[in-house]
Automatic annotation (TrEMBL):
<dbReference type="Pfam" id="PF00335">
    <property type="entry name" value="Tetraspanin"/>
</dbReference>
<feature type="transmembrane region" description="Helical">
    <location>
        <begin position="214"/>
        <end position="238"/>
    </location>
</feature>
<keyword id="KW-1133">Transmembrane helix</keyword>
<dbReference type="InterPro" id="IPR018503">
    <property type="entry name" value="Tetraspanin_CS"/>
</dbReference>
<dbReference type="GO" id="GO:0005886">
    <property type="term" value="C:plasma membrane"/>
</dbReference>
<dbReference type="InterPro" id="IPR018499">
    <property type="entry name" value="Tetraspanin/Peripherin"/>
</dbReference>
<comment type="function">
    <text>Structural component of specialized membrane microdomains known as tetraspanin-enriched microdomains (TERMs), which act as platforms for receptor clustering and signaling. Participates thereby in diverse biological functions such as cell signal transduction, adhesion, migration and protein trafficking. Regulates neuronal differentiation in response to NGF by facilitating NGF-mediated activation of NTRK1/TRKA receptor tyrosine kinase and subsequent downstream signaling pathways. Plays a role in the inhibition of TNFalpha-induced apoptosis.</text>
</comment>
<dbReference type="GO" id="GO:0005765">
    <property type="term" value="C:lysosomal membrane"/>
</dbReference>
<protein>
    <recommendedName>
        <fullName>Tetraspanin</fullName>
    </recommendedName>
</protein>
<keyword id="KW-0812">Transmembrane</keyword>
<feature type="transmembrane region" description="Helical">
    <location>
        <begin position="12"/>
        <end position="38"/>
    </location>
</feature>
<comment type="similarity">
    <text>Belongs to the tetraspanin (TM4SF) family.</text>
</comment>
<comment type="subunit">
    <text>Interacts with SLC19A2. Interacts with NTRK1/TRKA.</text>
</comment>
<dbReference type="InterPro" id="IPR000301">
    <property type="entry name" value="Tetraspanin_animals"/>
</dbReference>
<keyword id="KW-0325">Glycoprotein</keyword>
<feature type="transmembrane region" description="Helical">
    <location>
        <begin position="91"/>
        <end position="116"/>
    </location>
</feature>
<feature type="transmembrane region" description="Helical">
    <location>
        <begin position="58"/>
        <end position="79"/>
    </location>
</feature>
Length: 243
């Protein structure tokens, strides 16, 4: 290519890099705002987005997760957009490094999720079950979110009704939440065992398996974008040496 064509190609890719990362920056700001909204008024978020959002909220704290993802996207968007606009090798390399770290972490998480589903269940049980015992019936928002989840998804606790054994709610009311007994009261251990309502973790896994194709496609698309972003940032980085 002639020097003019090379410069035109460089300028085009630079502009695309700026626009792409500007979109990432704005998306990060949006997610950050939604995360703050979830933390401030989680119940209205659940009412709008329905049962699946409420079930996911029990496994991970969506508010904090969205805030973290939003903040990361803000950083990535800023590094990519400002680095390309200012033609800063330092910022472009930082952008490349951050995206590479995230890509490696995503691949590792995907492998662990596929290979160690049982381990994931054990870890979640260790994290979520103590919260159920301590906060269900005490924290109003936490209790409302779990009630919405268990009612709409038709599940009980993370694993089953035994998650509420020795909990504040059970000690106070002498029974399990009525969702553990197909909405029958009083929900004692005998009725809960007969009802055999599944835990919410199993229900979420079933949702994931049902939508595995869509989730895989989205994950592949995100991975492709990350690889393309790293390639473009490295192209700009290398081309700056020639200018």
């Amino acid at each position: 290519l002639s020097p003019g064509a090379k410069m035109g190609c460089f300028t085009f890719i630079k502009v695309m890099m700026i626009l792409f990362n500007l979109a990432i920056f704005l998306s990060g700001g949006t997610l950050l705002g939604v995360g703050i909204w979830v933390r401030v008024d989680g119940e209205s978020f659940l009412n709008i987005f329905g049962a699946l959002s409420s079930s996911i909220l029990q496994v991970v704290n969506v508010g904090y997760l969205l805030i973290a993802i939003g903040a990361i996207l803000l950083v990535i968007g800023f590094l990519g957009c400002y680095g390309a606009q200012k033609e800063s090798k330092c910022l472009l390399m930082m952008f490349f490094s951050v995206v590479l770290i995230i890509f490696i972490a995503e691949v590792a998480a995907a492998v662990l999720a596929l290979v160690f589903t049982g381990l994931a269940e054990t870890l979640l049980t260790g994290l979520v079950t103590p919260l159920l015992k301590e906060k269900y019936g005490v924290d109003t928002e936490f209790t409302n979110i779990w009630n919405i989840t268990m009612t709409q998804v038709h599940c009980c606790g993370l694993n089953n009704y035994t998650d509420f054994n020795n909990s504040y709610f059970y000690e106070t009311h002498g029974s399990y939440p009525m969702q553990c007994c197909d909405m029958q009261e009083p929900c004692n251990s005998t009725l809960a065992a007969q009802s055999a309502v599944q835990g919410c973790f199993n229900q979420i896994l079933e949702e994931i398996r049902t939508n595995a194709g869509v989730a895989g496609g989205v994950a592949a698309g995100i991975a492709a974008l990350e690889i393309a972003s790293m390639a473009v940032s490295m192209y700009l980085y290398c081309r700056l040496d020639e200018k």
